[in-house]
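Appendix B, Record 12. Input sequence as logged:
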Amino acid sequence: MTQAGSTGGWLGAVVRNSGYLRKWLILGIAIGVIAGLGAVVFYLALEYAGEFLLGDLGGYRPPAAAAEGGERGSIGFSRAWAIPLVTFGGALISALLVAKFAPEAAGHGTDSAIEAVHTDPRSIRSRAVLVKLVSSALTIGSGGSAGREGPTAQISAGFGSLLARRLDLSDVDGRVAVSLGIGSGIGAIFGAPLGGAVLAASIVYREDFDYRALVPGFITSGTAYAVYGSLLGFDPLFGFVARDYQFVPTQLGWFLLIGVVSAGVGYLYAKVFYGTVALTKRLPGGQVLKPAVGGLLVGLLALLVPQVLASGYGWVQLASARDTLMTIPLWIVLILPFAKILATSLSIGTGGSGGIFGPGMVIGGFVGAAIWRLADLAGLPALPGGPGVFVVVAMMACFGSIAHAPLALMLMVAEMTGSFSVLPGAMITVGIAYLLITRSNVSIYESQRINRESAEAERRGEAKIVKDEFE
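Logged structural output:
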């Protein structure tokens, strides 16, 4: 007879025997609370790490997004020589922690959580979650080019995995629980609960949508945002960008152009990032040395282009308004998408710890800013009065296309910028970018499966192999 403890105890029995509504109310709220608290803990860890490492030691403070105070940041470097040393040191300590305690915490986190959904939703170790939190705070806080969504996704996905183990959930429910963790963690840290809910249902596939995760995703992501917002505020990350914008049919050509350029830059981002991953594996040096060298190279690049340091959200904030965008040199605006691609590849593609979602939005935001700036300089017609709308739709298109989650990204960026008025034009831009990307096999998340049928076929094949081995 099976022991109660081996099947998740009385609570596991209650959850497993509950109807659909009660089951996902219990699991959704539990995962949401942890996702919200995890996002808060990581945000604060990142703030303190950045203030000490990049601020006090490096003598440089990057600008902040509106919801984070909106400070304009430092004007130049007070101790330029210290920047490469800080980025090197932060990457080195981060890599040491990962190598010593949880090697699977290397990289951007979200991809490993997606892989867990498809292979074993019970496999995410709690230790890896804690190591990911600390190592990512060190990487980004010291100036590494990475996003904060990867660690928060892994925190909440790890809790979903823990529930799958402790409550002995079915494989189907375990996969949904981990997917909910991914979406709610990202939605919470970006203040985008609706986009986070849709992301939970779409991020694990390239050409499909997991309807089983959608409704529970509303519960989980809403709970996570309520917890996060009640402690750190409910303001949109970038404030209200292009709030009063109204779609004008004569601007259709601009949205088509942004879609095409965003797809091209997004494609380049994915290819360069995974090209760096592949090259790093072939180079000599261990799991500690390679990310440390990557951090050093990012610091040296920052001496030329300071905007590549850390998350870069504050620079997107400055690029979204005409008066502040004009204070950024034109050559910086034009080169920054490519410099950010290189910096992120060096920071995370070499084995560092952090997310690639956030840098993707910075890259896209400056694609939009560059197009607007050049068009304004040339005096071209039908141009919006400010760059905000171009910045917003390019963020959606650039990363939404290569993440194969166009709807989720449209909703998330609209929530992050308070810019739902841009959606008519954004739908055109994102649609064009996504259609172009689907003509290739490129994705920024390599662990995504094509669709539910291919994922199920893969699992049946693996199950047969295991069965044959035991026979």
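The two ends are 24 Å apart (CA to CA).
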